[in-house]
Amino acid sequence: MPDIPLLDGQDGARIPAIGLGTYDLRGAAGTAAVATAIDAGYRLLDSAFNYDNEGAVARAARDSGRDDVIFTTKLPGRYHRHDLARFAIEESLLRSGLDRLGLVLIHWPNPKEGLYAEAWRALVEARADGLVEMIGVSNFLPEHLDRIIDETGVTPVLNQIEVHPSWPQDDLRRANAERGVLTEGWSPAGEKAGDPEHETIVRIARAHDVEPRRLLLAWAVQLGVIPLPRSRDAQRQAQNLDVVGIELTEDELGEIAAIADGDFVGADPAEHQEF
Ligand SMILES: NC(=O)c1ccc[n+]([C@@H]2O[C@H](COP(=O)([O-])OP(=O)(O)OC[C@H]3O[C@@H](n4cnc5c(N)ncnc54)[C@H](OP(=O)(O)O)[C@@H]3O)[C@@H](O)[C@H]2O)c1
C-alpha cells in the first residue's frame, strides 16, 4: 500500500496528498467502489450534497472501521442563506450517518447571489458546535477568499478548484498559498480537456514508464495540488494512488507548463450559478 504524505493546513489540519473523487459513484455499487479505494489506501473522499451519494460514500467509510478516513461533502448554492446552510449541514450529517463530518466545503461561491459569506459563517459555527471537523471552499476566486476571511477571521483549510495541464491555474494556486489555503484539484485526469492524449503528456509518461493519467496525477502532487481522481475500478484506483515516487524534471515541468491553453471544462466561478 503506498505511503501517502499528509499536507499541513490551517489549525493543525493534515490532509492526504491524494483523494478519491466520487461524482457518479452511487448506491450499492458506489459503496463497493469506495470500499475498494479505502482498501487500496485512500483516506480522503470527495462527496457533495448535490452528488446524491453522501450515504453511499460515507457508508464505505463507516464500514471500514477506520478513524482516519476524511469524508468531504459540499454545501449547494441553494442553501447559502445562514439558516438554510445549517439545515443542509445537519442533513449531510444525517445522510452520512457519521457523528461528525470530516470536511465541509462551499461548493461554488455563486457571487451573483452574494450569500457565500453567510454560508461561510454557518460553516464556522457548525465547526464550533462540533458538527464538522474542517471547513473549506471550492471554486473560490481570491476576492471570495478575502471576503470570507475578512468577515470571519477564519481561513478555509483548502480551496478545491479545476486543475490539469490545460488549465493549471498558476495564479489561483499562488493566491491560495499566499493565504495559507491548500489547493485540491478536481478533474485531475483531465479526461474532458484531453490532457491524457496530449502528445507531450504521452511522451513524458512513456519516459517514466507510466500511464498518462498517472503522470497527470504525479504532476499535480509535485505542484502541491491534492488531486481527486475518480475511478470505480479497483485496479485503476490503486494505480492512481501509486504516483508519489514519480519525479518530473524541471524540463518536463516546463514542457507541461507550455500545454496550458486556457481550455477549462467547468465554469467561470465569477459567473457560474450552482444550486
Ligand atoms: N468542486 C467541483 O466543482 C467539482 C467539479 C468536478 C469534479 N469534482 C470532484 O473531482 C472528482 C474528479 O473529477 P472527475 O469526476 O471529473 O473525473 P477525473 O478523475 O478527472 O476522471 C474520471 C474518469 O477517468 C477515468 N479514469 C480514472 N483513472 C483512470 C486510469 N488510471 N486509467 C484510465 N481511466 C481512468 C474514470 O473511469 P473508470 O471509473 O472506469 O476508471 C472516469 O471515467 C469528482 O469525482 C468530484 O469528486 C469537483
Automatic annotation (TrEMBL):
Coiled coil: none
Pfam family, one: Aldo_ket_red
NADP-dependent oxidoreductase domain mapped to chain residues: 18-260
Alphabetized UniProt keyword annotations: NADP, Oxidoreductase
InterPro entries, sorted: AKR (IPR020471), Aldo/ket_reductase_CS (IPR018170), NAD(P)_OxRdtase_dom_sf (IPR036812), NADP_OxRdtase_dom (IPR023210)
Family to which this protein belongs: Belongs to the aldo/keto reductase family.
Record protein name field: Aldo/keto reductase
Organism: Amnibacterium endophyticum
